[in-house]
Every structure is written in structure tokens, then in C-alpha cells.
Amino acid sequence: xxxxxxxxxxxxxxxxxxxxxxxxxxxxxxxxxxxxxxxxxxxxxxxxxxxxxxxxxxxxxxxxxxxxxxxxxxxxxxxxxxxxxxxxxxxxxxxxxxxxxxxxxxxxxxxxxxxxxxxxxxxxxxxxxxxxxxxxxxxxxxxxxxxxxxxxxxxxxxxxxxxxxxxxxxxxxxxxxxxxxxxxxxxxxxxxxxxxxx
Length: 198
Prior knowledge:
The chain is an alpha+beta fold.
């Protein structure tokens, strides 16, 4: 316990300092206390229940290990908040979701929503993509992708373009840049003409 407390105190009070020396050169130094700088005055032992949970979702197993009392649990391990794709540990369970195809727990970065029904979540590994012009739409199953492809084929050309937001936003961006360039160009011409006239 003393070793853990010392390491925690050292990490808590370790800072990176930037300063200028006498030779007018900037330096970067890590200020880290040593064990001799910290003294532990008293230790109180607290006994708390220690829980180990093992959960199975389809073929995937997830584990939790934590201490608990009447307040918030103190987790030593919580795989229900760790994305199975990027391995990143999230702060809350609201940032996680379960893929309906493979039962992977993943974070929002690796989550896709079925474009046809607008609600079914699926991970990036099992999502079925359909490439438009620049953008891709994702689907939870082949049936939904086939239905959308039929719908897309019946759309007029302008509506097909509108389905690809990357094309629409790219076109709007190019129009704005062209207008700005046009205004700057003709403003410079009028200023040049006015200068010559004087």
C-alpha cells in the first residue's frame, strides 16, 4: 500500500517546466519528486467487498473487477467500457454499444447506423458499405442494402447527388471559393483602373 501511495503521489506532482536560462535559451525540464520528498504519516486499512463479474454476450466474454461500498465502485478492471476494436477505455457506459451482428462492445468511433432504418447499430467490421460518388452508406444486412440500392436507382439524378453529402458540401465550398476569388479579382481590377485614372 505504501509503495502504491508513493507512486501515486509522485505521478500526481510530476510536472513539465519550461524556463529561460541565463544564456537566453529556453529549457524544458521534468520536475519529479523522489521518495525522500514524500512522507506517509498514517495508514488506515479499509476493508471493502471485492467483486469479479464475468459476462458473456454471444461469443464474447467481458470481465469486471472492482471494490465497492455504499458509494461509487473503484474499478481495477472494466472491459464493459473498453472498445474491442481500438482498445480505448471510455469514461461512461453511454459511450459504448453492442453490435447486433457480432456482439462486440465498441465505442462511437467504430459504430455505424443502418442507413435504411436509421436506428440499427452495427460495428465497422460487420457494417456493409455501399459506395456512392464520394460518400459510403452503411447497412446492417444485405436485405437493407438491396432495398436502398433499388430506391437509389429510381431517384432522379439531382436526388442521387443529394444523397452524397460530400459531393453537395464540396460543390458549395467550391462555389463560395469561386465567388470570393471573383470578388477579389474584380476589386483589384477596379482599384488598378482607378489608380491609373488619377
